[in-house]
Amino acid sequence: MLKYLIAMRPFSFVASTFPVTTGAMLAEDFSLTRYILSLIAAVLLHAGVNTTNDYFDYKKGVDTKDSLGSSGLLVSGKITLKEELLLSVLCYVASVILGIFLIKMSGPALLWIGLVGLVLGYAYTGHPFYLKYRALGMFLVFILMGPLMVLGAYYVQTGRFSVEAFLISIPVGIATDLILLANEIRDSEYDRRSGIKTLPILISDLASSYLYAVLVGIIYVFIFILVITNVLKPIALVSLVALSLYIGVIRQLFQKSTGKKSARKIAGVDKMSALAEMILFVSMILGLVG
Question: Any idea of the CA torsion for 10, 14, 16, 17, to the nearest 10 degrees?
Fold first, then answer.
């Protein structure tokens, strides 16, 4: 059973926990039951996307023994393609079943959010779409882990949407996008050899590193706006602690982009970005409840 848990990449679940929690906590009348159900549904969908991603990355030769990403189970032979595919299907099915309960509890608009999430989640790397391989990964991740999940979680709690929920979804979605962007800059040589297209391959590692820095700035612009407009309490500015991590990542990305460091020497940039996202997560939740 442990290998199946590893295959789902649970360390990445902060990326789905963050939007669902912020969306739910933004609601004035918070329901713990609805929150738990929506969180489990989102995490299961995320696990489905992760396992689909590993399945097709391995089939297309993107993941090899030299790769720095994925769970590593397929390339090491610890899990079979059939097992990976079955696990992916089970995660999607369980997410859909929970989604049906949530639709009955909250309203029909959730059906469309759920359908879009399911289709985009599969299309990320699934046949015949392969959108990640067409340099659309960042766009999809932002939509899925930003507006879609935040607005969905808020709707589950309230039965409606709000401008505040949309605004707070933007820094949330960008924070997850930064993990992917750091990963893609680090892995650009591997991806190029695999014949796929990612944003760094299209616009260069250097331009992507500048983009990473700009996106970090946008996160904090939105956090300041949310504090000024009283959507978040001032304690949310604790998120500035994450800035040192982001600066460290930016420095390493530029070193890789200019040939001063290899991909392996900056192997931890995605984990540093994920840790920064966790700090943002905690600080923004404090800003909602403090």
Answer: 110
CA distance 254 to 251: 5
Please give the angle made by the CA atoms of 142, 175 and 72, to the nearest 5 degrees.
85
Block residue for tokens 């999430």:
117
Question: Are residues 181 and 154 in contact, defined by beta-carbon separation less than 8 angstroms?
Answer: no
Rounded Cα distance, 206 and 212, in Å? 10
- Tell me the pTM: 0.93
Burial of 132 (0-12, 13-18, 19+ CB in 10 A): buried
What average pLDDT is seen over the chain?
93
**Which CATH number belongs to the domain containing residue 186 in this structure?**
1.10.600
Q: Which domain holds residue 170?
A: 2-289
Q: Which of 236, 268, 99 is nearest to 172 (CA)?
A: 236
User: Hey, what's the torsion of the CAs at 82, 86, 89, 94, to 10 degrees?
Assistant: -170
CA dist 252 and 182 (Å) reads 10
Q: Which residue has the tokens 């933007």?
A: 170
CA–CA gap between residue 109 and residue 89 (Å, rounded)? 24
How far from chain centre, in Å, is Cα 53?
A: 13
The Cα–Cα gap between 89 and 118 comes to: 12
Half-sphere exposure of 12 (CA within 13 A, CB side): 28
Each residue's pLDDT tens digit, 247-264? 999 999 999 999 999 998
Strand partners, 197: 134
